[in-house]
Amino acid sequence: MQIATRTATRHGVEVNGFDPAAATAADLAALREHLYRDKIVVLKQQTLTPDRFIELGRAFGTPVAYYEPMYHHPDHELIFVSSNLRHDTGPIGVPKTGAFWHSDYQFMPEPFAVTLFYPQRLPTVSRGTYFIDMSVAYRRLSPGLRAAIEGTRCRHSARRYVKIRPSDVYRPLGEVIAEVERKTPAQTWPTVLTHPVTGERILYVTEAFTYEIEDADGNPLPRRLIDDLLAESGQLDTTFEHPNIFLRGYEPGDLVLWDNRTLIHRALHNPGGEPTESFRVTVTDEYPLSAGVIA
Ligand SMILES: [Fe+2]
Q1: Which of 27, 161, 212, 224 could make an S-S bridge to 23, C-beta 3.0–4.6 Å?
Q2: What's the CATH code of the domain at 202?
Q3: What are the tens digits of pLDDT across the range 174-216?
Q4: 103 Cα: distance to centroid of ligand 1 (angstroms)
Q5: What is the pTM of this model?
Q6: Does residue 292 fall inside a structural domain?
Q7: Angstrom distances, CA of residue 127 to CA of 3, 131, 191
Q8: Domain count within the chain
Q9: What is the mean predicted confidence (pLDDT) over 34-56?
């Protein structure tokens, strides 16, 4: 197993020659350390079966099945499938997922620590994921804004991005919305997390899920604060040229792991609707979301 040195122009580290069947406990511990420190680990030239992929997830935490079954792989509920392919047996998973700035499960009581993303079929163009390192975004905030959010908390909900299921057709919209609120009630987290492993401070605000901010006593603060945080962190830049945004491109065989506390991401959909499919395993780890917060 060879771990490439992190460079100034490339985010995260790349690992060549990783074979999960032969990996030692020391190898896996080294990968975990890199994941928390470098935020992205790309395992090159992987050919894993679904079972092996899930098994790899266990090296980084506890795999969790997505709460909505329509995303599940038909034979492996721990694998989340994003796909626009038509298999002989019909479509699997859900097409066009995640094209908005978010952190996986930020709206849930236990957000994921690590996302393992394994493209199965890549388009010829537009293959990659946009990321923002929110510890960098926090450090780059204007001093006034950073001071204004000290000690505040934000509320997060999936409601704007929950996908209507085939079984919801003909249901009253109010009933569907009530179900969303019941199944995924909004969660409140500190606006700034402290990473439980690295100690870094992380701005935990996303365009998709964050909708309210309050002071330390629970008094509501102006929505304008959230808008300013989204703008300064780069999430409102539709050109994707903001210095905080980087695009991580993929090659066939790449298996990409990222620290879901620190990085927010946004899927890049290819405009031509080329066939594309990816598998994802998401895990919780043994740490709280933020040092000092019981998740
Ligand atoms: Fe995601």
Answers
A1: 27
A2: 3.60.130.10
A3: 999 999 999 999 999 999 999 999 999 999 999 999 999 999 9
A4: 6
A5: 0.94
A6: no
A7: 23, 13, 31
A8: 1
A9: 96
